[in-house]
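Lab notebook, page 48
Experiment: co-folding of the full assembly
Goal: obtain a model of how the components sit together before planning crosslinking
Operator: M.T.
Materials (sequences as entered):
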Amino acid sequence: EIVLTQSPGTLSLSPGERATLSCRASQSVSSSYLAWYQQKPGQAPRLLIYGASSRATGIPDRFSGSGSGTDFTLTISRLEPEDFAVYYCQQYGSSPLATFGPGTKVDIK
Amino acid sequence: QVQLVQSGAEVKKPGASVKVSCKASGYTFTSYGISWVRQAPGQGLEWMGWISAYNGNTNYAQKLQGRVTMTTDTSTSTAYMELRSLRSDDTAVYYCARDQQWLVPHYFDYWGQGTLVTVSS
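Observation: model returned without errors.
Model output:
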């Protein structure tokens, strides 16, 4: 069973800074089947990245995903005020067929 | 535009069952799957399971096997999630989400607004 670990748990940064979020899997994620979501308080999650590096429709290009195997990264090149939120990674295609990481909170320094 | 509209908040007693609906619009319902995800207060996201709107195949998270049933009504483009033998730790916001694949669970590109289910005596 694949378990996802995200680090850090909380990332305190200022607007305009670069954010680097990590997602590590306990086993190799097949075919880079990894997605990233953003969730703000009181809202449903929003898909940012799928297939490890493909941006979802309407997602700004300051969001980028990379990685393969067991190590994946979400990078926000320059934080905008609306980017302060919780970010989750999710693997699909390996047993169990979908799992989420515990999340990384990006808050304002 | 794609929309998933869920049923309203529920309050249930321990041991009862709850059935949450998710009405889809703006796309061909049977070309995708629906996954259900829940979030306990202040906690992260937990994938509960998936149903193919194409053929009705399901896949449930192991910890919920035997207590959860997911169904669809293709005539109304509506998905349902029923959870039985409710416990206090089932208190959560329950989301439906469009799954990009009708064959196996994938990633979720559109989400419902969430349904709060409170289990309390």
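Interpretation: The longest strand of chain B covers residues 18-25.
Next step: discuss with group before ordering constructs.
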